[in-house]
């Protein structure tokens, strides 16, 4: 089935989101749709899947004009959208989720036996060893994602739209998902693949459509282009080398973490990070990387362990202790732990910095605004005002607000947990530049990242954690992806 979207327009109030977009998907094709956050990718796909109506333009299927105004219209043509935020019902069973709004009946009664039998057949077809009576809340994110794809195939699917499908998956789950995608492709299912991960795009897709500022600006054959060309089309400029040259002067040990243990999470962890250094922390999901740093910062408890800063022992039992010792922590989950989404940019930046503009319980509003405005400018947050709600910003700009909030406390140690997760390539480069600037000011950076090219390019040294234990340390000169993955899976080098 061939789909053509021609001259598609969409506005929300005075905000023109799509401005004459053209997009073509051929049968059996895996077509990447890429662009910075806010480029219009999700809006375009919401129109194709019937979630949103278009304002103007045409949709053609196999050359014939069709109207897709509801999700039922889309289902009629076999179009299914697997959203980044999974739309399942966690408190219901797998079977109930699969047959939601598609229940099988015997007269007026639900035919549970038929639904269970069909669920088992469907799950088996997708190599999912899951009991259909299992509650969805008991499944891993990867299993839930695969269940959603299986559900989409309950009825014939011609087009599958996947929005950032690997953002919360383990490496093993990613491999299973990719195998499933390739099997669907071989069955002539067409797929639209939205992702910020270039390595996935180049390994899976046939074509790449680039969107920028609500327009489709480039169509490329995947095997005839390169990452640099795609990124340049996304941001509208040549960004040069994607990763900056990390050339800060590295001096004495700034922070030492000694004999850190927490039963069931990590054991006897010893880490040293120097001034001006980016210290990488690698390991598979669940290895304990995040848990170690949460305990160091005082967010989570530890059973034993000591922290030394500039050679002096410090006591950190809660985050305020860490902040007093000039430690900042950009957590992985920025929306739940890093920001107050319903508040403004100014209010979020102010949360840790009242001492800079308050006296005797009175807030100097002018000083507060000057601080937030200057940080918005310095961190290149794309917004019309620091009074804008954080919830209205793209993921990349939300992350810059988190950086700005912590930067204002003048940290000497900065822990970054997956700092570019869900961030578009343009914002990624800006975050990398921020990291470089901080190291040149002598800040020690501890970087947890599952993005191995990122980790290898930014880090001076890398510690690898395996099942809660220190598996090895590699210098940036000796490190490569193969060595890191060998250590991360329990091997030796």
Task: Provide a concise account of the structure shown.
The protein is α/β, with parallel strands linked by helices and 493 residues long.
Describe this structure in words.
The chain is an alpha/beta fold and 493 residues long. The protein folds into two domains: 3-235, P-loop containing nucleotide triphosphate hydrolases (Rossmann fold); 253-488, P-loop containing nucleotide triphosphate hydrolases (Rossmann fold), CATH 3.40.50.300. Helix content is 33%, strand content 26%. It contains 17 helices and 24 strands. The strands form six sheets. The chain has a six-stranded mixed beta sheet with strand order 6-9-10-3-11-12, sandwiched between helices. It has a six-stranded mixed beta sheet with strand order 18-21-22-15-23-24, with helices on both faces. Strands 2-1-4-5 form a four-stranded antiparallel beta sheet, covered by helices on one side. A hairpin with a 2-residue loop joins strand 7 and strand 8 (109-110). The longest helix has 16 residues, at 171-186. It is globular, with a radius of gyration of 24 Å. The N and C termini lie far apart (49 Å). InterPro entries: AAA+_ATPase, ABC_carbohydrate_import_ATPase, ABC_transporter-like_ATP-bd, ABC_transporter-like_CS, P-loop_NTPase. This is Sugar ABC transporter, ATP binding protein. GO terms for molecular function: ATP binding; ATP hydrolysis activity. Its EC number is 3.6.3.17. It is found in: Cell membrane.
């Amino acid at each position: 089935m061939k789909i053509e979207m021609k001259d598609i327009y969409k506005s929300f109030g005075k905000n023109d989101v799509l401005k004459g977009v053209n997009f073509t998907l051929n049968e059996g094709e895996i077509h990447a749709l890429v662009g910075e956050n806010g480029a219009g990718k999700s809006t375009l796909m919401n129109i194709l899947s019937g979630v949103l109506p278009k304002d103007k333009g045409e949709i053609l299927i196999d050359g014939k004009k069709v109207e897709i105004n509801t999700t039922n219209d889309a289902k009629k043509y076999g179009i299914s959208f697997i959203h980044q935020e999974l739309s399942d019902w966690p408190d219901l069973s797998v079977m109930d989720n699969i047959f939601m709004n598609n229940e099988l009946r015997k007269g007026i009664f639900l035919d549970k036996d038929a639904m269970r039998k069909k669920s088992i057949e469907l799950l088996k077809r997708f190599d999912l060893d899951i009991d259909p009576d299992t509650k969805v809340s008991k499944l891993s994110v990867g299993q839930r994602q695969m269940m959603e794809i299986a559900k989409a195939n309950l009825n014939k699917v011609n087009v599958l739209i996947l929005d950032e499908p690997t953002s919360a998956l383990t490496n093993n789950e990613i491999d299973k998902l990719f195998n499933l995608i390739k099997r669907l492709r071989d069955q002539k299912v067409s797929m639209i693949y939205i992702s910020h991960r270039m390595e996935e795009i180049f390994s899976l897709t046939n074509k790449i459509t680039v969107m920028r500022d609500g327009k489709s600006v480039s169509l490329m054959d995947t095997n005839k282009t390169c990452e640099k060309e795609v990124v340049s089309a996304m941001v509208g400029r040549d960004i040069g080398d994607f990763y900056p040259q990390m050339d800060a002067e590295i001096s004495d040990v700034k922070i030492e973490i000694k004999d850190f243990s927490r039963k069931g999470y990590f054991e006897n962890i010893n880490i040293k990070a120097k001034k001006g250094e980016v210290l990488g922390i690698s390991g598979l999901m669940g290895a304990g990387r995040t848990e170690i740093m949460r305990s160091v910062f005082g967010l989570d408890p530890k059973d034993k362990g000591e922290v030394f800063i500039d050679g002096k022992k410090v006591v950190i039992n809660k985050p305020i202790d860490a902040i007093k010792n000039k430690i900042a922590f950009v957590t992985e989950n920025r929306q739940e732990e890093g920001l107050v989404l319903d508040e403004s940019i100014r209010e979020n930046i102010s949360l840790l910095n009242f001492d800079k503009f308050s006296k005797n319980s009175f807030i100097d509003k002018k000083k507060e605004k000057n601080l937030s405005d200057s940080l918005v400018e310095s961190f290149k947050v794309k917004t019309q005002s620091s009074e804008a709600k954080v919830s209205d910003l793209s993921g990349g700009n939300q992350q810059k607000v988190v950086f700005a909030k912590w930067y204002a406390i003048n940290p000497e140690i900065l822990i970054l947990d997956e700092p570019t997760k869900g961030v578009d390539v343009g914002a990624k480069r800006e975050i990398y530049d921020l990291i470089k600037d901080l190291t040149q000011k002598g800040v020690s950076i501890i970087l947890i990242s599952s993005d191995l090219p990122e980790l290898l390019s930014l880090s001076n040294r890398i510690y690898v954690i395996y099942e809660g234990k220190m598996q090895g340390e590699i210098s940036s000169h000796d490190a490569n992806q193969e060595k890191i993955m060998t250590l991360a899976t329990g091997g030796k080098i």
